[in-house]
Amino acid sequence: MAWIKRHLISFAAIAVLVYMLVPNVVVAAFSFNDPKGKYNYNFNEFSAAAWTNPCGAQGICESLGLSLQIGVIASLTATVLGTMIAFALGRYRFRGRSATNLLIFMPMATPEVVMGSSLLTLFLMLGVPSGRTAILIAHIMFCVSFVVVAVKARVATLDPKLEEAAADLGANPTQTFLRVTLPLAAPGIAAGALLAFSLSFDDYIITNFNASPSSITFPMYVWGASARGVPVQVYVIGTVMFVLTLVVVMTGQLISSRRNRQVA
Amino acid sequence: MAEAAVLSTGSSAPPTRRRRNWVPYALLLPGLLWLVVFFVLPMVTLASQSLQEGNVDDGYTFTGNVGIYVDALKQYWPQFVRSFLYAGTATVLALLLGYPLAYFIAQKAGRYKNLVLVLVIAPFFTSFLIRTLAWRTILSDDWFVTTWAQKLHITDLLQAVGLTANDSLLSSKFAVIMGLTYNFLPFMILPLYTSLERLDPRLIEAAGDLYASPWQTFRKVTWPLSLPGVVAGTLLTFIPAAGDFINARLLGNTQTTMIGSVIDSQFLRVLDYPLAAALSFILLIVIVTMVSVYVRRAGTEELL
């Protein structure tokens, strides 16, 4: 009894973790289903058909390709813009600092439906057609703030003395930045870029306001399919994404922990 | 040190130590310009759109029709109230569920810390829609209702408290709130974890040494020190939950429609732009007001 009491928090934590992971397990299990009817609700029969033919559902791989393309361009652009802002905030004193902080915070404190609809009104007024460009503009906009937060957290932990030391050793500001500051800030920048990619890749609400019939992203495809009946291939892609994330993040952590051990 | 200083002044192009004033502005310019043009300016066009009259085919003219806001509220106040109620409930539930897990990762997980942290973040990198569809699969299984609830004769009770709708867990209030809680839980856990990680375990030991009960230790030490994380986490959960309509549409029924859904369909299906813009603007104003009051009350001005 005392043992249970002592580990109460651990049990609660594990229960919550199970709650968070149950849908992923269901997605993986149902990716091997051969559904009866168009809704993949009940496990009918084991089948690996969807795994051997992941593009089997019409339009699914085109939408996946578009989402990957938008995700890469949007996250790279947002990472450049956000990293620059994070360095300005973390390394310099300047006027208008609190206004800048507010402007960075606001997109994170605004519901997506408001951002999507307000952008739609801007594009309507300016006559910007909906579609891929409009989606890209929107994605870069909502990703920038998250990159700033991720990079700024890392920049704040850097010791400014290292940069001073580089300058003392005769490095010019560009050399100092490229060979000292940037490598040190790299984990924060990588985390920001990864976060931006996942936000862009996963966005439905804002994208839906700015998409055209010829620019169906993967989340839009899934949303459409949820009304018609979800092809098993969607679950296959969901499983692949989950496993890939686990592999990428764990490899990243292994590299960083090995590097830390070398430094130590 | 002196040697280095001599060396650096002796080189042909001494590095300027004085920070150049234009550098921070040059770094800020592109990003902030992007946010001003594609975030701030749209808020202006949104407000302007709400005060225009006309239709999609003939175009719109600005008439300053403030009455649209009265109409919007009169017609859709239940959806507004429902959205804030659902989002509030989901936020409280996420805090109750997220706190033990965040505490566990920060203070108890030891060498499994990184692994658990990855498991918390990983679902977040898998499609939000696919995971919500998985909940639809899970909740559509009526095993619980048809066996247990009927045996215990509580089907009517479940229906009354909103746990089920038409004897199914799916399409009930419970399903929508559970979905919201689930989907935004990582947004709660990560800020909580950040503040709890900074908590020095010696403070907890000290409280125990001074005869504080575990509950007192939590009330007087752990909770106050984790407050910045609680504020950030509740905001990051409540705001997206209040505007969300994916959970309400995929897991709910027509009685659980949230305001995001109304805005979405008014804009994209009904094409009543002024009304949709007014609804969207009201949502923005309410959220901004709530957030600023809450942040001031909680006393954590520096959230970034």
Topology record:
The complex is a heterodimer of chains A (264) and B (304).
Chain A: H1 2-6, H2 8-30, H3 49-52, H4 60-91, H5 97-105, H6 112-126, H7 132-157, H8 160-168, H9 173-202, H10 205-210, H11 218-228, H12 232-263
Chain B: H1 2-10, H2 22-50, E1 52-55, E2 59-62, H3 67-108, H4 113-121, H5 128-139, H6 143-151, H7 155-161, H8 173-198, H9 201-209, H10 214-243, H11 246-251, H12 259-270, H13 273-298
Antiparallel strand pairs in B: 1-2
Keywords (chain B): Cell membrane, Membrane, Transmembrane, Transmembrane helix, Transport
Domain ABC transmembrane type-1 (chain B): 80-294
Subcellular location (chain B): Cell membrane
Task: Summarize the model shown.
Chain A has helices spanning 2-6, 8-30, 49-52, 60-91, 97-105, 112-126, 132-157, 160-168, 173-202, 205-210, 218-228, 232-263. With 264 residues, chain A is mostly helical. Chain A folds into 2 domains: 1-49, no CATH class; 61-231, MetI-like fold (Orthogonal Bundle), CATH 1.10.3720.10.
What does this structure look like?
Chain B: The chain crosses the membrane at residues 22-41, 84-106, 115-134, 174-193, 221-242, 275-295. Chain B: Its main location: membrane. Chain B: Keywords: Cell membrane, Membrane, Transmembrane, Transmembrane helix, Transport. The complex is a heterodimer of chains A (264) and B (304). The longest helix of chain A has 32 residues, at 60-91. Chain A has two domains: 1-49, no CATH class; 61-231, MetI-like fold. Chain A is globular, with a radius of gyration of 23 Å. Chain A has 264 residues and is mostly helical. Chain A has helices at 2-6, 8-30, 49-52, 60-91, 97-105, 112-126, 132-157, 160-168, 173-202, 205-210, 218-228, 232-263. Chain A has twelve helices and no strands. Chain A is 77% helix and 0% strand. With 304 residues, chain B is an all-alpha fold. Chain B has one domain: MetI-like fold (Orthogonal Bundle). Helix content of chain B is 74%, strand content 3%. Chain B has 13 helices and two strands; from the N terminus they run ααββααααααααααα. Chain B has helices at 2-10, 22-50, 67-108, 113-121, 128-139, 143-151, 155-161, 173-198, 201-209, 214-243, 246-251, 259-270, 273-298; strands at residues 52-55, 59-62. In chain B, a hairpin with a 3-residue loop joins strand 1 (52-55) and strand 2 (59-62). In chain B, helix 10 packs antiparallel against helix 13. The longest helix of chain B is centred in the N-terminal third of the chain and has 42 residues, at 67-108. At the A-B interface, helix 2, helix 4, helix 5, helix 6 and helix 7 of A face helix 1, helix 2, helix 3, helix 4 and helix 5 of B.
